[in-house]
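Appendix B, Record 12. Input sequence as logged:
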Amino acid sequence: MTMYAIAVRESRAARVLSHAASVRITAAYAALLAAISVMLNALGPQAREVAVSRMSTNLHNLAHGRLSTLVGSAFVDDGGNICLWLPWLVCLLALGELIWRGKGLVVAFAVGHIGATLLVAAGLIVALKVGWLPFSVARASDVGVSYGAVCVLGALTASIPARWRHVWVGWWLGIALMAASGADFTAVGHVLALLLGIGLSYRLPSAVHWTPVRLVLLGGGAAFGYFVLSGSSEVATAGGVAGVLIALLASQVSRTRTDVSQPEFVPRPA
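Logged structural output:
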């Protein structure tokens, strides 16, 4: 092997290590999720059931002061095949970390995971007091990464090029609102997390350049967001399409009003 070939290989290795260091929060979180899932699978269904029960951010646990569930619930899944969704979650989180750095990613995820959880809990308390929901909902299982991940998805809004931003917001809000129309509290939490992320996006750094790597990560992250929000529902997808059309119409009306409000310049005679 020539010295040139060795230098090229070392350069490539250095670039790989540099990219890996740029997403170390994502890598560490993904490794923990995988390790915990494997461990619970090895211990059996009963162990997972106990973990889900103790880590759920439901009203029963929160009312008993188990605030650790606000963090612990982000590391436990409900038993689905983690291999089917973890790679796409990694795409979403890695993109956020590349744009905002590790601290920004943690803030965005925490705002969605904790903020949406507490807002949903407040809504459930009201619903129980007025009799809209049965008291069994107080012990419902509520674990997973979805609130935090959806907030990260929404927080990408300010990084989307301005000419596509209204389409981006319309698509995701349309899907989330249609999914939430079934009065499922988790779906309502997704709407809240998405709105929190959209609001937070203008407080975080935005992407200046969209490199091929970032575009690939955006595609993977968007796929994860779509399946989390819609559950592959055709009705929710139709809601997304409707949201895009409404966003396009609103954008067109806004541009028309702006053009009308600007007086036409008429040169004065000398």
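DSSP finds eleven helices and no strands in the chain.
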